[in-house]
Request: fold
Amino acid sequence: MTARVIDGKAVAADVRARIAEVVGKRERKPGLATVLVGEDPASHVYVGSKRKACAEAGIRSIHHEVPATISQGELNDLVRGLNADPEVDGILVQLPLPEGLDPDPVLAEISPRKDVDGLTAANAGLLAQGRIGLAEALELEPSEPPLGLIPCTPAGCVELLARVGAELEGAEAVIVGRSNLVGRPLGSLLLGANATVTTCHSRTRDLPAVCRRADILIAAVGVPKLIEADWVKPGATVIDVGMNRTDEGLVGDVDYAAVAQVAGAITPVPGGVGPMTIAMLLANTVRTSVAPASAP
Ligand code: NAP
Reply:
């Protein structure tokens, strides 16, 4: 079998075009504030791409670049100011922060209504309790302000699953990785969609055997080509979140060439989940602007 390739670039382009259409109809354009601390080159590239994507979708970009010498208190104050600013609908603090700055108190300052990364305890809690789910991940034009916001990468994964028509209800879904950014929220989303979810991590016994159970296998590990062909059930849908810079270039957590011979559908790296993350950030920004911008 040769797997169907899930073209994340094409899906992301489609989502972004729909967002541009929604934004185009709005008199007041949504505004996304980005906070970039220090000189990390990768962070500069990521924030640059996000701002460019905002501009292309008609979203206002409000950018704050501050030196790595900023104090924790000053950074928290900056976020508090953005919470209070009615021109700002969404707030994104680019992580990781430079050494000496703790991201947790900064994230804790972000108003959950403006939390476009979905990383505040309030939004993570709503998702973990099943009070928000697929609707918040996929609906672009909710008629009412959403109760909460879903992290962008997991939302991108479920959008891709939806596009390939993967049956989630009753499916065995195995997620490798339990980070707050990807694995945990994705587990909650899939559980909310009535999949039977197993979340694996570095202490999981016999990981290949657990992975072989999966109808839907998602790798969010950070270990290049960890998932091998004989870990995959024939016909499974495989979503590779991994982005690992190696001598071979950017590779995922899945041994793509080998696994593509076994899986039913698979995302490539690059060109799979990566482009979806930015698309879903824009989608979250549009959702935040359904709520009154000055709401707490
Ligand atoms: P993370 O915070 O480092 O979490 C990695 C997870 O993988 C942890 O739960 C860890 O287990 C588990 N793990 C590590 N080695 C393992 C092994 N050998 N066997 C089984 N589990 C193992 O990483 P993350 O932020 O979730 O990111 C994961 C990957 O996705 C990275 O490559 C990252 O670059 C990529 N990523 C891509 C996007 C995108 O837009 N495409 C977005 C975010 C992340 P423990 O909990 O036991 O330590």
Remarks:
- Residues 291-296 have pLDDT under 50 and may be disordered.
